[in-house]
TrEMBL record:
Active site per the UniProt annotation: K181
One protein family per Pfam: DegT_DnrJ_EryC1
Signal peptide (residue range): none
Domain of life according to the entry: Bacteria
UniProt source species: Pedobacter chinensis
Entry keywords, A to Z: Aminotransferase, Pyridoxal phosphate, Transferase
CDD domains xrefs: AHBA_syn
GO molecular function: pyridoxal phosphate binding; transaminase activity
InterPro entries tied to this protein: DegT/StrS_aminotransferase, PyrdxlP-dep_Trfase, PyrdxlP-dep_Trfase_major
Protein name: DegT/DnrJ/EryC1/StrS family aminotransferase
Any Gene Ontology biological process: polysaccharide biosynthetic process
Length: 363
């Protein structure tokens, strides 16, 4: 079976060597030595001043909203994983959905200002599939209207925008280190803030609001363990090789499928992409469903990522986002991972190209 992704795992002995450091100290959580070391190495690798390692990629969104004191309307995208919307709802904010563009599927910056009201406090935008939003335009709008900006960069580890890590933008950027991501710690995430005051608030919120016996503010438990940090320390050694291999797989897909009736993600010229996903957009949902059936019959498991469009969730107030709704019904992410063999990739390509799914006419 070829799944949409496969977790990269370092040599087992390398992981156990790192794990033994925590084991020998019997210090396996509460911001241990390995977690601190991982934070420092990540800051160095990404050229960041502040980065905080945390439990997962959802709780860091919640902490960002809390640290920036966001309680009102938040302009956001309907085309993302459900956690983007859930974090807003969980923090009693009101998501205001703005449609996406049809090139890289990020929030359409040209439609943001029309959605701003006196209740708007922030913009929460997702770097979809690891490709950045139009950061320059979003931050210009935010500055004009005095809005905070949070970037859900869950997919974007290793992506650069104008030569800088995408984490270097916004009031807070967050990332997921889930096992399915380009860089992972099994479970985990991080949050990045340029303002040291916000970074300190995030640090305190992550650990119940106290340092030792000194209590400063409210907080929750968003710390991560030494077991997870050990995985991150191992995997960071391989990240450049991981990114290179993913690029090779991505480019083979793109070259093989470019002359067929499929839309492929456009990468902007000012972006150094991390090749996190390879989405293809079919002409209609019927084509997609037939392709999925054909692939599944061969033991290939792609993913309809993201479907449904989040503005259609049953627990939010529906507002039409026709581009997002259309893309969500027709997009399919093909298998992409470090160990994907070329012969297996060709099976996937041939299944799509040679079956009747592409030729099938849409109503």
């Amino acid at each position: 079976m070829i799944n949409v992704t496969k977790t990269f795992l370092p040599p087992f002995e390398e992981y156990t060597t790192q794990l033994k450091r925590a084991w020998d100290k019997a210090w396996i959580t509460n911001n241990g030595e390995l977690a601190h070391e991982l934070e420092e190495l990540l800051k160095k690798y990404l050229n960041l001043d502040h980065l905080l390692y945390a439990a997962n990629g959802t709780i860091v969104l919640q902490l960002a909203l809390k640290a920036l004191e966001i309680t009102g309307e938040v302009i956001t995208t309907p085309f993302s994983y459900v956690a983007t919307t859930t974090a807003l709802l969980w923090e009693n904010c009101t998501p205001v959905f703005v449609d996406i563009n049809d090139r890289n599927f990020c929030i359409d910056e040209n439609k943001i200002e029309a959605a701003i009201t006196p209740k708007t406090q922030a913009i929460l935008a997702t770097h979809v599939y690891g490709h950045p939003c139009n950061i320059a335009a979003i931050e210009k709008i935010a500055s004009k209207h005095r809005l905070k900006v949070i970037y859900d960069a869950a997919h974007a580890f290793g992506t650069q925008y104008n030569g800088n890590s995408v984490f270097n933008y916004g009031d807070v950027s967050t990332c997921s280190f889930h096992a399915t991501k380009v860089f992972h710690t099994g479970e985990g995430g991080c949050m990045v803030a340029k303002d040291p005051v916000i970074a300190e608030k995030l640090m305190l919120y992550r650990q119940f609001g106290h340092i030792g016996e000194d209590y400063y503010t409210m907080g929750i438990n968003a710390k991560n363990s030494e077991m997870h940090a050990a995985m991150g320390l191992c995997n960071l050694k391989y990240i450049d090789d991981i990114l290179l291999k993913r690029k090779q797989v991505w480019e083979h897909y793109a070259e093989s499928l470019k002359n067929h009736d499929l839309q492929i993600l456009e990468i902007d010229g000012n972006v150094s992409y991390n090749y996190a996903y390879f989405p293809v957009v079919f002409t209609c949902e019927e084509q997609l469903l037939e392709a999925v059936t054909d692939l599944n019959a061969k033991g290939i498991i792609p993913r309809r990522y993201f479907n449904p469009s989040l503005n259609k969730l049953p627990y939010v107030d529906y507002a039409p986002c026709p581009v997002a709704e259309s893309i969500a019904s027709r997009v399919l992410c093909l298998p992409l991972f470090y160990e994907l063999a070329t012969e297996d990739q060709d099976k996937i390509i041939n299944s799509i190209v040679n079956t009747k799914s592409i030729a099938k006419k849409c109503a």
